[in-house]
Specification:
Elements lengths: L7 H23 L4 H17 L2 H4 L16 E6 L18 E5 L2 E5 L1 E3 L2 E5 L7 E7 L7 E5 L6 E5 L5 E4 L7 E6 L9 E2 L12 E6 L4 E6 L5 E6 L6 H4 L53 E2 L3
Parallel strand pairs: 1-8, 11-15
Antiparallel strand pairs: 1-5, 2-3, 2-6, 4-5, 6-7, 8-9, 9-10, 10-12, 12-13, 13-14
Length: 297
């Protein structure tokens, strides 16, 4: 039985609707088919498209050691060995599970693909500091700072889970170091006597690029301990946190500006650049090994 010729108007509609999906070559062949065959062909095309893995359909890229991906809004976390330049032991050689915490509450569990943990930010109700529990390790939480719930965010962390960059590796918006229980770091101490505070708390330092500011906060809760906004001759991105930070050269050349840096003022409010500066964040010239101070204790 000869095929029924399609009216010109029907052919025009099919071209307008389906030409962008299946291309001119297939469309040419479709003009020789009856309507029933066209419906079957379109159904098969839809099944094939839906069978493509979700990350590819969304345009996600396979991450490398220097590139994490986020499609979303999402927060994506990847391990990077260049951030292992800090004392401590390796805690994670791969990410098999990751949970985003606000306090003790899990607000998002990551999907893992290509070694990258991706969190759906739509589960977050507010911006601010959150914490990532990697592979169930509650003693080595990784801090993150979410500034927008509608924009994707990339983050990198060393295998020691101590040093993390938020944004990019070359020009991060934030750098953070943790002083965790899992790495046997000193806990938070009271400014009054340098003794451990109760309940026990660990610290993390987070440094922003603009403004140049360092904040000392409680790991796991985000409660602020102390902070300082820069503007002097030192670059906070390298001087406060990093392999050449102020702790590596505090014994030489600092007394010119910080004349009484190792002398503890009677009150925390009296700490200044030339008066007990070593007590501004941690308890004296011993640095982080003596613990970071809670000025209210």
């Amino acid at each position: 039985m000869p095929e029924r010729a399609e009216p010109a108007a029907r052919r025009a509609r099919l071209t307008a609707i389906h030409g962008r999906i299946i291309g001119p070559e297939v469309l040419f062949q479709m003009r020789r088919l009856d309507v029933g065959k066209i419906v079957v062909l379109l159904a098969v095309t839809l099944v094939v498209v839906c069978a493509v893995p979700n990350p590819i359909r969304r345009g996600k890229l396979v991450p490398t050691s220097t590139t994490a991906w986020a499609a979303g809004p999402a927060l994506s976390l990847a391990l990077n060995t260049s951030l292992d330049n800090i004392p401590g032991t390796v805690k994670a050689t791969s990410i098999t599970k990751a949970e985003l915490l606000k306090g003790t509450k899990v607000v998002s569990t990551a999907t893992i693909a290509g070694g990258v943990a991706s969190f759906d930010l739509s589960t977050c109700t507010a911006t601010g500091d959150y914490f990532i529990r990697v592979n169930g390790d509650a003693n080595d939480l990784v801090p993150t700072r979410i500034k927008s719930l509608t924009a994707s965010l990339n983050q990198f962390v060393g295998r020691k889970l101590r040093r993390t960059y938020i944004g990019s590796l070359t020009a991060p918006a934030y750098k953070a170091d943790t002083f965790s229980k899992g790495q046997a770091q000193h806990g938070v101490v009271g400014y009054s006597n340098g003794a451990a505070v109760g309940p026990a708390a660990q610290c993390y330092a987070i440094v922003s690029k603009s403004p140049a500011k360092v904040e000392m906060r409680v790991l796991g809760s985000g409660a602020l301990l102390t902070s300082y906004t820069g503007g002097g001759e030192h670059s906070f991105q390298t001087w406060v946190i990093g392999p050449t930070n102020h702790g590596t050269s505090a014994s030489s050349g600092c007394t010119g500006c910080h004349s009484k840096m190792s002398t503890k003022p009677a009150t925390y409010a009296s700490c200044g650049v030339s008066n007990g500066w070593c007590y501004k964040c941690h308890y004296g010239a011993a640095g982080s090994s003596a613990g970071f101070v809670n000025p209210t204790k």
